[in-house]
Specification:
By secondary structure, the protein is an alpha/beta fold. The chain has one domain: Flavodoxin domain (Rossmann fold, 3-Layer(aba) Sandwich), CATH 3.40.50.360. It contains eight helices and six strands; from the N terminus they run H-H-E-H-E-H-E-H-H-E-H-E-E-H. Strands 1, 2, 3, 4, 5 and 6 form a six-stranded parallel beta sheet that branches. The N and C termini lie far apart (about 55 Å).
């Protein structure tokens, strides 16, 4: 039977002690990055329900550009949500039914590792917004706030893939940015020379982004910018 926990009670309980936890978490992150850790990690999250398709391909381009900034200090990893179970209802305090499983905790454990300094979230455009899978993931990420702003000061970037050149990518980027703002993340765009809010990529209808020079340039610039700022946050040059 589903939990009777109300959303109000859930959020009230989740917020207790958050400020103190945030301060401790930020201090621990800074100490490890500046003193003990030789590398920083940049993760990319693909919110597409189709594994290995255009969103994953665009994020791979961004990660390759991020790695190229400093191959010795930067590690990268692509996490695809396709095939994983993300129950958005749990963000409202509704427990899983008996026997059900959810994959969010496994993804969350990777995102909150101390050496993860940069996070790029990508989604295909669904009716000028993120996919339902990506939205469920963003909703579940509210737990990071409840546990003391665990993503605070991590560098965030957004990427969107649409079926048209102007098919809702910018609104999708804004949806991802809004969630990142709520996490106290440090948001960056795709930087110069494209210098926009993020990477807006075009899928030509054949699951091929290779001909989208504009979108791929933005994806590369996004990855590079996330890496540059991540290294600065980690105390590098």
């Amino acid at each position: 039977m589903a939990s009777k926990t109300t959303r109000r009670n859930f959020l009230r309980a989740a917020g207790m002690g958050a400020a103190a936890a945030t301060a401790l978490g930020s201090a621990a992150l800074a100490a490890e990055l500046t003193a003990g850790s030789k590398t920083v990690k940049i993760l990319a999250i693909s919110g597409s329900p189709r594994k290995g398709k255009t969103t994953a391909a665009a994020l791979t381009v961004a990660l390759e550009a991020a790695k190229a900034v400093d191959p010795e200090r930067i590690e990268t990893e692509l996490i695809e949500l396709a095939g994983l179970k993300m129950n958005g209802d749990m963000a409202a305090g509704i427990a899983l039914e008996a026997g059900q499983q959810d994959d969010f905790p496994e993804v969350a454990a990777k995102l909150t590792q101390p050496n993860v300094v940069g996070i790029i979230i990508g989604s295909p455009v669904y009716l000028r917004n993120v996919s339902s899978l990506c939205k469920a993931f963003l909703d579940r990420s509210a737990s990071f706030r409840a546990r003391g702003m665990l993503l605070s000061n991590k560098v965030g970037g957004a990427l969107a893939v649409g079926a048209m050149r102007n098919g809702g990518q910018e609104l999708t980027l804004e949806a991802i940015h809004s969630a990142m703002f709520c996490q106290e993340m440090v948001l960056v765009g795709d930087a110069r020379p494209t210098a926009h809010a993020g990477a807006a990529v075009w899928n030509n209808g054949k699951d091929d982004i290779s001909q989208d020079e504009v979108g791929l340039a933005a994806a590369k610039n996004l990855g590079r910018r996330v890496a540059e700022v991540a290294l600065k946050m980690a105390g590098g040059k």
